[in-house]
Amino acid sequence: MNRRTVLRAGAGALFAVPLTTNTATTAAAAAAAPTDGWTRTSFTYSWQKPWNLDLGDRHSYSGGVHRMWVYATDEPFEEGSSTDPRTEMRWKVDYTTGDHMWDADVYLPSGTDGASFVQILRGVHPSGTPATDIMLNAYDTNGGTVRRYDGTVLKTGAYDTWFNVKIAHEASSGTGTIKVYFDDSLVLTADDRGPATRYFKNGVYNHGSGRAEARFRNISYWTR
Fold first, then answer.
1. Whole-prediction pTM value?
2. What is the Cα–Cα distance from 51 to 49, expressed in whole angstroms?
3. What pLDDT does 23 receive?
4. Considering only CA atoms, which of 221, 170, 165 is closest in space to residue 192?
5. Whole-number pLDDT of residue 109
6. 29 φ, ψ to 5°?
7. Judging by beta carbons within 10 Å of its beta carbon (0-12, 13-18, 19+), is residue 204 exposed, middle or buried?
8. How many other C-beta atoms lie within 10 A of the C-beta of residue 76?
9. pLDDT per position as a tens digit, 41-85
10. What's the longest Cα–Cα distance across the chain?
11. DSSP letters spanning 22-44
12. Terminus-to-terminus CA distance in the chain, angstroms?
C-alpha cells in the first residue's frame, strides 16, 4: 500500500449497541468487564523499526513501560518499501476466525499527530480488499484526539495521560465484529473488512510530520 493511503481506507458499517429498559439487565451489563468470559493468553511478537537503525534508537523499556518513537523522515521498516516509518510490535498470533482481544494502557505524548498506535493488519487478504480491519490514530487537536482511521472521533483530551484500550475482534469466515473499549467503556462497534488472516500491531506508525511517540504498559492478549 502506498504511503499516506492507509488513512483513507474507508470506514466500514457502524451499528449502535442496543439499549434495554430492564433495570436489572442494565445494571448487570454495566458491572460486566469487557474481559469477562475471556482467557488471558500468552503471545510473542517481533519488531518493525526503521531498517537502518538499531531498535534502541527508537525504543526503550523501563519500569514496565515500552516507549516507541519515530520521525517522519525515518526510513521504512524494509529497504525499498513505500510505507511510512514505524516502530511497532508485530504480534506473532495470526488468526482467521475466533475471538481475540488486544489490551494495553496507552500514553500519547503531546504533539503526536497523524500516527497510528494500534491496528489489526490483514496480512493475507483477498485482492482489492483493505490491508487493515481497524487503525486507531492520534491527532494534534482538542488536547489529543483519537480517531478510527481519520474519521470517527473516539476520544479527545488524550494527550499526556494513561488510558486503557481494548480491541475485541470476533472474527468469522464472513464479516466479523470489532469492539473498541476505552477504560472499559464501549466506544465503537464496527464490522471488520471480511475474511483474512490478520494480526495485531501496536507502536507508532507515523503518517504525519515531525516526531510521533506512543507508550504502552500492561499489554495483554485475551481469547475465548
1. 0.87
2. 6
3. 57
4. 170
5. 98
6. -65, -40
7. buried
8. 18
9. 999 999 999 999 999 999 999 999 999 999 999 999 999 999 999
10. 59
11. -HHHHHHHHH--TTTT-EE----
12. 32
> Given pLDDT bands bounded at 50, 70 and 90, which one contains residue 24?
low
Residues listed for the chain: 224
Q: Which residues contact 81 (CB under 8 A, 6 or more apart)?
A: 51
Question: What's the Cα-to-Cα distance from 30 to each of 24, 90, 169, rounded to whole Å?
Answer: 10, 33, 20
In this predicted model, what pLDDT tens digit does every residue of 83-105 receive, in sequence order? Answer: 999 999 999 999 999 999 999 99
- Which residues touch 115 (CB under 8 Å, ≥6 apart)? 70, 137, 138, 204, 205, 206, 207, 208, 212, 214
Residue 4 CA: distances (Å) to CA of 51, 66, 144, 184, 207: 19, 26, 20, 31, 6
- Whether the predicted pLDDT of 14 surpasses 50: no
Beta bridge partners of 115: 138, 206
Report d(CA 24, CA 20) in Å as an integer. 10
